């Protein structure tokens, strides 16, 4: 590497070392993270991952110079203020940790709304004044009520994927609505010749939970339906057998120790039902006992 | 209640709920027969759909059961 | 349900639920009598306190009936 | 319930629910066989679509009482 | 379901649910007996409280009666 | 349930649910393989539409009261 | 669902749901293994209590029965 300052050579060598000694290398974007939060996140990651900020050119050099196949493609994911993350954790887990450490941040003019930004109906802290006009101008339904500015309806002020306009950003901040998230934004991660982009890395735990329950239900259904006996299915198969047998006995009016009370009760209930219809027509058609 | 059971019995066996039949069953069951009540019963049942009236128990009953099952 | 209704009828009139009585009532109601089912009925009810069985359910059954009747 | 289970068993294996078969199964299961109950079982099932009766919840029977539980 | 009906039948008659008994009943019911399924049935029942499993159903189908008893 | 999961797994990957395959998967999963249960599994699944059986709620069958919710 | 079934299988046999084990089972079941999905599965399951999820399913299934009986 001619024409390169000594410190830069050291830095590239250092990065290469890290690249070669960890199984997973992530490319993150640290843009917009305030310094204290970044400190906090470094502490969170301390034992599980190493975060390294550097110049884009140096990171490119290190990636291209590594003997790990395909890893140079990570440079395609340099965005904003890129940084490399080194870890031996499963990249999905790394992504999950990083996502969960993100914190809410104020709206910024020109950024993209990650989801619908809603201004909820209700009181505001604002006293009547010019702010009412600003709210209305930003498209927020507001009026004065009992000496306060009140938002009259829930309002989607910016839809997901739309750019946040300047006046809206400032109003949202004044309303203390923080629709953005800041944190280490993992754009892609490399492991064993594969690059996982952030869309792949998104793990849907709710779906996984639902799938686990679905699998269990399917297994129960199949074992009951096919009459395969195991610890879980056998009580259900017994219940199915008993329930079918009781149904048959009750429907065919077969008296035995399990059905007789129910059948007697059925007769009695039917009698009372019919009696109430009859006595509605003519009280004298039923005996005194039934009139009460 | 014996008058009602008698009506249900005749209904189930598919016999007419007539004065004669009602009396015959009641007597077989050892009941003292009150002519006026027999007449009143038969008149009252003329406008009643027995099958439906008896089923009402079931329907009324089925509702709370449904309710109980619903939140699950 | 004719066998059950017959049992309830006899119970209500205070008669014994015997083979003879059950048959008499069923015949009066125009039913074809199946000896085996009569015997089974009597056997099944032998150890049963009908009053109790009814009362248990009775209270129970009465409630929905009343409820059902009201809106009708 | 042994008579019912026997009927269900014979129905499932596709055998006729005849006196002979019912007795054979009950005996194999170590039950004392009561001729009258066997006959009553067969008589009761004669006009019944077993498949349908198995799946049809005896709502009327079971439910009225369940209903009672609710308002209590 | 013939295996489970057999088990229920033996349970009801108070017989042991052993390979031998299960086979005897199944054969009496005219079923082709699959040794492996018999073994699987018996193994599975070792960990199951039949009475408890049955009670749960009984509760559903019949026990409303018991429930009704409480407020009475 | 390991036998069922194995069957479902093989079904999903489109492999035959044969003794050999079931054993291979169970062993890979670190299970002790019981030959009888493998055979019972295969016998039980022979005539079953696995896809359909997996989706058919078995539990509703076990809960007659839930069934009662549909009064029809 | 083959990845989930594999996880459930390993859970049932008491084996660790590790990359190695998941791959081993999937391969035994004749599945083509997608490394990324294996890793995703494991990451997702780290925060899912399978035992609890199963309990909840079982409870939900049993609920209608309990519910019907309970209101007393």
From TrEMBL, chains B, C, D, E, F, G:
Keywords: Ribonucleoprotein, Ribosomal protein. The keyword Transit peptide does not apply. The keyword Cytoplasm does not apply. GO terms for cellular component: ribonucleoprotein complex; ribosome. GO terms for biological process: translational elongation. It comes from the Archaea. One of its GO terms (molecular function) is structural constituent of ribosome. Signal peptide: none annotated. Belongs to the eukaryotic ribosomal protein P1/P2 family. Forms part of the ribosomal stalk, playing a central role in the interaction of the ribosome with GTP-bound translation factors. Part of the 50S ribosomal subunit. Homodimer, it forms part of the ribosomal stalk which helps the ribosome interact with GTP-bound translation factors. Forms a heptameric L10(L12)2(L12)2(L12)2 complex, where L10 forms an elongated spine to which the L12 dimers bind in a sequential fashion. This is Large ribosomal subunit protein P1. The gene is rpl12. The chain holds residues 1 to 72 of 100 of the full protein.
């Amino acid at each position: 590497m001619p024409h390169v300052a000594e410190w830069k050579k050291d830095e590239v060598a250092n990065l290469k070392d890290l690249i070669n000694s960890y199984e997973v290398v992530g490319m993150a974007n640290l843009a917009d993270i305030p310094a204290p939060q970044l400190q906090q996140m470094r502490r969170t990651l301390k034992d599980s991952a190493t975060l390294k900020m550097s110049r884009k050119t140096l990171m490119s050099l290190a990636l291209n110079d590594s003997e790990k196949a395909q890893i140079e493609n990570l440079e395609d994911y340099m965005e904003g203020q890129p940084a490399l993350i080194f870890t031996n954790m499963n990249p999905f887990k790394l992504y999950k940790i990083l996502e969960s450490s993100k914190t809410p941040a104020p709206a910024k003019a020109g950024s993209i709304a990650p989801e619908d930004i809603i201004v909820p109906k209700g009181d505001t802290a604002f006293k009547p004044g010019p702010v009412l006009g600003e709210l209305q101008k930003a498209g927020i339904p507001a009026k004065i009520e009992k000496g306060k500015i009140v938002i009259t309806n829930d309002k989607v002020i910016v839809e997901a994927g739309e750019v946040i306009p300047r006046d809206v950003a400032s109003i949202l901040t004044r309303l203390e609505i923080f629709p953005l998230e800041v944190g280490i934004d993992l754009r892609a991660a490399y492991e064993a010749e594969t690059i996982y982009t952030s869309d792949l890395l998104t793990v849907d735990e709710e779906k996984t939970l639902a799938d686990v329950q679905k699998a269990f239900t399917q297994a129960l259904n199949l074992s009951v339906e096919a009459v395969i006996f195991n610890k879980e299915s056998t009580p259900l198969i017994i219940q199915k057998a008993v329930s079918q047998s009781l149904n048959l006995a009750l429907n065919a009016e077969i008296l035995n120790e399990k059905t007789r009370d129910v059948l007697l009760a059925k007769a009695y209930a039917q009698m009372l039902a019919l009696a109430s219809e009859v006595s509605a027509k003519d009280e004298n058609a039923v005996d005194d006992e039934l009139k009460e | 209640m014996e008058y009602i059971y008698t009506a249900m019995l005749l209904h189930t066996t598919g016999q007419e709920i007539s004065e004669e039949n009602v009396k015959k069953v009641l007597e077989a069951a050892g009941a003292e027969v009150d002519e006026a009540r027999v007449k009143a019963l038969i008149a009252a049942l003329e406008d009643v759909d027995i099958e439906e009236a008896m089923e009402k128990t079931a329907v009324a009953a089925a509702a709370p059961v449904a309710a109980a099952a619903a939140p699950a």
